[in-house]
Recover the amino acids of this structure.
């Protein structure tokens, strides 16, 4: 009985300990015809560690709340790249809310058009923390998807909302080239036989 109770307690503590994982962040892009918002949720411990690793502890020691918020916003802007159909979306207007365990940021972006071919995302933020991962998800009109961005994919990913580009032209060209080579070999051998 004591052993079972001990196992349950250890399990519960391990679940609670993972609730605010300092090695993960969530980026959510939501757009419709009228507006577009990027919401970012960060572990406070994770952002603190990244800022110390990037700027040094001495730099941050006497920083007031406003300067600290600006530092976080600038760090995110410098470590986030979103391109839709090869057009970079700039993070401009937004807000930040510091919390005890989590920091939330919101940026208002221009609405995103329909018929998107490609979404390219690079989030090298927090890679100095080691083993960090960011979850990026989007909902654009009726399209949605998500991916985990980490060192495994070099902190970047690509989405094809309307399907990946067709490889058919390459296949047809390769097949036609193969047929041309076979015909050339046949004609050369035939010429040798008749000679």
């Amino acid at each position: 009985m004591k052993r079972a109770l001990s196992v349950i307690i250890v399990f519960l503590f391990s679940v609670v300990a993972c609730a605010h994982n300092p090695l993960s962040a969530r980026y959510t892009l939501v757009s419709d015809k009228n507006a577009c918002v990027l919401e970012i949720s960060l572990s406070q411990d994770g952002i603190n560690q990244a800022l110390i690793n990037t700027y040094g502890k001495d730099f941050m020691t006497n920083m007031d709340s406003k300067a600290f918020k600006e530092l976080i916003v600038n760090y995110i802007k410098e470590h986030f790249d979103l391109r839709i159909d090869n057009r970079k979306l700039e993070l401009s207007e937004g807000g930040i809310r510091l919390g005890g365990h989590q920091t939330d940021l919101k940026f208002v972006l221009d609405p995103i058009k329909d018929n998107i071919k490609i979404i390219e995302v690079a989030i090298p933020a927090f890679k100095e923390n080691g083993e960090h991962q960011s979850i990026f998800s989007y909902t654009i009109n009726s399209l949605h998807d998500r991916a985990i961005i980490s060192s495994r994919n070099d902190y970047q990913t690509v989405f094809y909302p309307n399907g990946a580009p067709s490889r058919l032209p390459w296949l047809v060209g390769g097949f036609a080239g193969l047929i041309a080579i076979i015909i050339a070999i046949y004609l050369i051998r035939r010429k040798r036989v008749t000679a």
